[in-house]
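In this supplementary section we document a worked example of the pipeline. Step one takes a protein sequence of length 174 as its only input; no multiple sequence alignment statistics are reported here. Step two produces a three-dimensional model, which step three serialises into C-alpha cells for compact storage. The input and output of this example are shown verbatim.
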Amino acid sequence: MRWLVRILLAAFVLSFPLAGAQAQAQRPKLTGDLVKDLGMKPATSGEAETSTDKAVGSFGQEVRKITKQLVDKAILDVQAALDDATKHNDAISIPCWQANLDLLKGLPSQWENPPQDIGIALGIQIQRDLLNSITGTDVKSLKVACAALWGDQLKIVANVGALLGVRIATGGLF
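The serialised model returned by step three reads:
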C-alpha cells in the first residue's frame, strides 16, 4: 500500500512541469496592445450607445441635477445666515458662514462648466480641496473660521442644560 501512495505522489509531482509546458504552449503571445490582447473590438465614433450607456448617462444627469438643487438651497440658507450675521454685526459667526458659502460655491456642481464625469485625477483633487476647506489650518477653512462659533454654541448648549439641570458631556470644559 505504501508503494502505491509513493508512486501516485511521484506521478502527481512530476506532472506539474508537463502541465506547465502545455499551458505555456497554449497561452497566446501578448503584443502590448490592450485592445488586441484582451480581444476587444475598438470603439468607433459611429457606434450607437448601448442601453446601459444611456441608462448610466441618464442616472448621472439626474444625480447632478439633484446635487445642484441641494447645493443651491444650502447656498441660499447660508447666504441668509451671513446676511443676518452681517446685519447684526455678529463677529463670531460671520467668518464661519463666509467659509461655508465659499466651500459650497466651490463644489463641482457650482462650477461654471461642471464636469460631466469625474475621473480619478479630478476626484482626488476635489477630495483634497474639500479636506483642506474643512480641516485645513488656513483662515478660510471651516475648522478655523467656525471654531469660535462652535465653541460659543457648545457653551450656550451647556448653559441651557445647566439651567434645566441636565448634565452635558463637554469633557470638563464647562
